[in-house]
TrEMBL record:
Catalytic activity: [(1->4)-alpha-D-glucosyl](n) + phosphate = [(1->4)-alpha-D-glucosyl](n-1) + alpha-D-glucose 1-phosphate
Protein name: Alpha-1,4 glucan phosphorylase
Chain positions found as N6-(pyridoxal phosphate)lysine: K702
Source species: Macrolepiota fuliginosa MF-IS2
EC numbers, comma separated: 2.4.1.1
The keyword Translocase belongs to this UniProt entry's keyword annotation: no
Role description: Allosteric enzyme that catalyzes the rate-limiting step in glycogen catabolism, the phosphorolytic cleavage of glycogen to produce glucose-1-phosphate, and plays a central role in maintaining cellular and organismal glucose homeostasis.
Length: 856
């Protein structure tokens, strides 16, 4: 393919700015004191034309009916619930847009430093309820919709989750956007607009996970605004050569268009409404004319298909190099264009933009900014590197060696030839440790081997101003393991910690309205206050001795269990008993998260119950165990774990001797919306990763906020939760991080037979092998991960795990004491609001200031 594109135009707006003019009367002059001065009579014209915010029920019903009539072109006499959802959503969107416009205008006028959160995943869930809450229009909309003959709860159920993420990392990005807007911080998100989000999980009758596509855009998505005029060209392949002036020129290859879609992110109780910009890939207009001329129609269409394919799917647990570059190139071009509109010199870029890399997925932004500064802005290497290393910030999300991102050098060279040159030019390390070849090898951006690979975490670290982990323990591990050499090279002050948080709006007020009401009434503090100053929850402590309050607290939990049971009954047809303790583990299926430990523990409990006399069983704690989570489609062992859970459930739930005391469910298709039903219903939840493997976890926080207790290992944010709520309110078990390495060494070099080391576990494994839960052969590969090697240390932790579950039972049977623990837990969770976390990023990392929208 020959190119007609001047490389200088890459990353610049595709269309020259159209001639724009200001509506008469709009943008008043400001006088010296900053007061707006309107030309005579014009204010009226403007104000008459501009849509204001809906305030009361008649505004809302009017706008709803308007949208039915015009946007949806439906007749008012045959509107279904989906139509009602769409009309409600469109009218809410109008309100969001009023605030969104004011927010963006405010940023343009004040030109504050902005932060950009680059994340390949945003696990947003549903929007309507959150938008109503944040706008403060929930009651008004409930009434308005009611007046028109609909019920808000049913309408809310019609919305599909926006599931543009795999799990915790994507949900964290969503919580951070909510908190940024709520804290009036000028933060934009940048991501990809996947046509298909994370797959829908189905469970076959045999218990196998099946994956179905998630066509979430099937119906019109009212929450996004296509910006067809905001587009950039992104190049792949081709070649990079030196021009006469010695500068590199990258030409040829494939050019793809990135089109912007904007999603409004409203803050809670504030006008600030930030933006999440998602890119869609599209073939460049005009196709490849050479192919057409040669009569190669199919060839031309094929290349246009491959352009559209870039953003078509969110790959489970994986992203492609082309996705990563497409997204970072478009985002950077957009950020640079916005900066250039301020008229400041490029050397001041880091004073106006902080770019946060959510994991290593956006690391190509580092060589991409270098490329632009060197080849287009024609800066020197040192000038360019200075700008780059003051702009980027990198959040590490894992220290598991197998999860550290690497790209084969030949692939990078093929797809991004200029970037590979730049990566090879970033060899800052050699100067400091001349002669220390081992260290240079460890620190190199390129890992030796066949093929050689680019180590993205090293590139992200070297190219960033600061690096952080996501909980204290994890941040320490980053400094002492995977980036140890870099700490010695660059100084420890570059490395920090920001413990994750979750938004209390979604994870308390929206998902648990009864608890939220009870808290408001008890504290006698306006919800608008404590939802933003979450440490106010501490006021609940003084009510732990108030019996009436405790009964109300317990009644809310009971009601949430019944809501969950109703959901399971209506969607799956199972009858969950609600007079039992609810024990929940919901998260992606992964060996390090040890769902296997949990299911083997359930089997142990079942076998123990079977061995009891009827009289003994009567004294046992009744328990409902619930799992949910998706496994990566190619992750065989994780899928086998699901299969085992489903088949154990079949036997246990059908056993007349024990079913009163133990029930087990695997709920398919875990999602944000399912989490919102499960979490408020939980008495205890499991966060049982092998010590040192879970960077933080965020579902542990969600459960505790909702008064659920934890059983867990001394890992990730579990540790800080226990520090806050008190160790007596957390059920810890298992070996600690420093022991893990030695234990693994023993497994390899001095293995002890499992019958000797952990007879209880050996018995459980043998029962599974013997076919007690269906054909035992099926599970051999899973059981062998425990019997041989046992990398995740189940044989080391099983006994203490079972012992801690026994303590949970004992504690639960003391109802009064349990409820006190539950209240104390919620009361001390203030630290884990994502508002606290985002303010730490803003202050200690980005140097960002709150930029409230002036009230008009
Ligand atoms: C919070 C959340 C997660 C993260 O769960 P962890 O247990 O911390 O791994 C994953 N998926 C969804 C849908 C969530 O809401």
């Amino acid at each position: 393919m020959t190119s007609t594109i001047d490389p200088k135009t890459i990353g610049k707006p595709q269309h020259p700015r159209r001639h724009v003019r200001t509506l008469t009367g709009y943008l008043p002059e400001t006088d010296a004191s900053g007061k707006e001065k309107w030309p005579k009579g014009e204010e009226k014209v403007w104000k008459a034309g501009m849509r204001g915010l809906d305030k009361d029920v008649p505004d809302i019903t009017k706008s709803f009916v308007n949208h039915v009539q015009t946007s949806l072109a439906r007749q008012p006499y045959n509107l279904d619930e989906l139509g009602a959802y769409q009309a409600a959503a469109l009218s809410v969107r109008d309100n969001l847009l009023v605030n969104w416009n004011e927010t963006q205008l405010n940023y343009t006028r004040k030109t504050p430093k902005r932060a950009y959160y680059l994340s390949l995943e945003f696990l947003m869930g549903r929007t309507l309820d959150n938008a109503l809450l944040n706008l403060g229009l929930k009651d008004q909309y409930n009434d308005g919709v009611q007046q028109l003959g609909f019920n808000m709860e049913d309408i809310l159920e019609k919305e599909r989750d926006a599931a543009l993420g795999n799990g915790g990392l994507g949900r964290l990005a969503a919580c951070y956007l909510d908190s940024s807007a709520s804290q009036e911080l000028p933060v934009w998100g940048y991501g990809l607009r996947y046509q298909y989000g994370i797959f829908q999980q189905l469970i076959s009758p045999e218990g196998n996970q099946l994956e179905a596509p998630d066509p979430w855009l099937e119906h019109q998505n009212p929450w996004e605004l296509p910006r067809l005029d905001v587009s950039y060209e992104v190049r792949f392949y081709g070649h990079s050569e030196r021009g006469n002036d010695g500068r590199a020129v990258w030409t040829g290859g494939q050019e793809v268009l990135a089109i912007a879609y904007d999603v409004m992110i409203p803050g809670y109780g504030t006008k600030t409404t930030n933006n999440l910009r998602l890119w869609e890939s599209k073939p460049k207009r005009g196709f490849d004319l050479n192919s057409f001329n040669a009569g190669n129609y199919e060839g031309a269409v094929e290349s246009s298909n491959s352009a559209a394919a870039i953003t078509s799917v969110l790959y489970p647990n994986d992203h492609t190099l082309k996705q990563q570059y497409f997204w970072t190139a478009a985002s950077l071009a957009d950020i640079l264009r916005r900066f250039k509109n301020t008229g400041k010199p490029i050397t001041e870029f880091p004073d106006y933009a902080a770019i946060q890399l959510n994991d290593t997925h956006p690391t190509l932004a580092i060589p991409e900014l270098m490329r632009i500064l060197l080849d287009e802005e024609e800066l020197s290497w040192n000038q360019a590197w200075q700008i780059v290393t003051n702009t980027f910030f990198y959040t590490n999300h894992t220290v598991l060696p197998e999860a550290l991102e690497k790209w084969p050098v030949p692939l990078v060279e093929h797809v991004l030839p200029r970037h590979l040159q730049i990566i090879y030019d970033i060899v800052t390390v050699e100067k400091k440790f001349p002669g220390d070849r081992d260290r240079l090898g460890r620190m190199s951006l390129i890992e030796e081997g066949f093929p050689k690979q680019v180590r993205m975490a090293h590139l992200a670290c070297i190219g960033s101003r600061k690096v952080n982990g996501v909980a204290e323990l994890h941040s320490d591990l980053v400094k002492t393991t995977i980036l140890k050499d870099f700490v010695e090279f660059e100084g420890v002050s570059k490395f920090g910690n920001v413990t994750n948080g979750v938004t209390p709006r979604r994870w308390l007020d929206q998902c648990n309205p009864q608890l939220s009401d009870l808290i408001t009434k008890t504290l006698k503090i306006d919800k608008g206050v404590w939802l933003k100053d979450f440490t106010k929850l501490e006021g609940l402590l003084q009510f732990t001795e108030d019996k009436e309050f405790r009964e109300k607290w317990a009644a809310v939990k009971q009601s949430n269990k019944e809501r969950l049971a109703k959901y399971v009954q209506s969607t799956l047809g199972f009858t969950v008993r609600t007079d039992a303790m609810f024990d929940v583990q919901i998260k992606r299926l992964h060996e390090y998260k040890r769902q296997t430990l949990n299911i083997l523990g359930v089997i142990h409990r079942y076998l123990t119950l079977k061995n009891m006399s009827a009289a003994e069983r009567k004294k046992a704690n009744r328990k409902v165990v619930i799992f949910a989570g998706k496994a990566a489609p190619a992750y065989y062992i994780a899928k086998l774990t699901i299969r085992l859970i489903v088949n154990v459930a079949r036997i246990i739930n059908d056993d007349p001797e024990t079913k009163e005391y133990l029930q087990l469910y695997f709920l398919p298709d875990y999602s944000v919306s399912l989490a919102e039903i499960l979490i408020p219903a939980s008495d205890i939840s499991q966060h049982i990763s092998t010590a040192g493997t879970e960077a933080s976890g965020t579902s542990n926080m969600k459960f505790c906020i909702n008064g659920g207790l934890l059983v867990g290992t001394v890992d990730g944010a579990n540790i800080e939760i226990a520090e806050e709520v008190g160790e007596s309110n957390v059920f810890f078990f298992g070996h600690l991080t420093p022991a893990v390495e030695d234990l693994r060494y023993q497994h390899t070099y001095h293995p002890i037979p499992i019958e000797q080391k952990c007879p209880a576990l050996a018995h459980v494994l043998n029962e599974v092998s013997a076919g007690r839960f269906g054909d035992g052969h099926v599970y051999e590969p899973l059981l062998n991960t425990v019997r041989q090697g046992d990398y995740y240390l189940l044989t080391d932790d099983f006994d203490s795990y079972i012992a801690s579950l026994a303590m949970v039972d004992e504690a639960y049977l003391d109802r009064d004491e349990w409820i006190k623990k539950s209240i104390r837990t919620t009361a001390k969770m203030g630290k884990f609001s994502s508002d606290r976390a985002i303010l730490e990023y803003a202050e200690s990392y980005w140097n960002l200031e709150q930029t409230p929208v002036p009230s008009s």
